[in-house]
Design a protein that fits this description.
Length: 217
């Protein structure tokens, strides 16, 4: 899952991004509304964690732009105000969910994952395919009942492949969904991660390489 965190409190923004990355998400961070508009014009995000009171361009205007563009991106709006009227107004603007500050990080993560499941064809909370069972919320993976320990990027790649339900996923798509914008697009990190993931999943191999196209399960 790829997430954009838009928050002008840099310490909070960086802390949220670090925490979400530990949950195997690809996260980009910006600190004002203008930068947010620039990013959403270039990258496809599953979820935008959007502070409402942003400098340069207000968070309301960023949200309106996402809605205006008809993007499948879901918006989790943050605010320091806990007033019901503010929450209602934010939802009426087009936000998909609303979370007042201060918040528990576990709740933020749960809400981001819930919104991420709504950006594509609805899928069950636990993904199962080819003897593999993947639980995004608990970050657990089992193959034929055997638990498999994966690094965050390995987990992210496997989740993308599982969510594709047998469709071929290109290396470029994996790079976009599992890594942030600071990753060199010419690196071989996708190939290396898939190789490591195959080894950990064991025999017989379940990740198939489709020459010239990508990978599928």
């Amino acid at each position: 899952m790829r997430v954009l965190v838009v928050e002008d409190e840099q310490l909070l923004a960086d802390a949220v991004a670090t925490g979400l990355r530990r949950e195997a998400m690809a996260v980009d961070v910006v600190y004002d509304g203008a930068a947010a508009l620039e990013r959403i014009g270039v990258n496809d995000y599953d979820v935008v964690v959007l502070d409402r009171d942003l400098p340069v361009v207000h968070g309301d205007d960023v949200c309106r732009k996402i809605v205006e563009l008809g993007m499948p991106t879901r918006v989790l709006m943050l605010t320091a105000s806990g007033d019901v009227s503010d929450r209602v107004e934010g939802l009426e603007i087009g936000a998909d969910d609303y979370l007042p500050k201060p918040f528990a990080f576990s709740e933020l993560t749960a809400r981001v994952r819930a919104l991420g499941r709504r950006t594509t064809v609805p899928l069950p909370p636990i993904l199962e395919r080819a003897g593999i069972k993947l639980d995004p919320n608990r970050r657990e993976v089992f193959r034929d009942g055997r638990e498999i320990q994966l690094a965050p990027k390995e987990f992210a790649v496997l989740e993308v492949l599982m969510r594709s339900e047998g469709a071929v996923v290109s290396a470029e798509q994996l790079l976009e969904k599992a890594w942030d914008e600071n990753t060199d697009p010419f690196t071989n990190v996708v190939r290396v991660t898939v190789m490591t993931l195959r080894r950990k999943l064991g025999e017989p191999p379940v990740i198939v390489t489709v020459p010239g196209s990508g990978y599928r399960i």
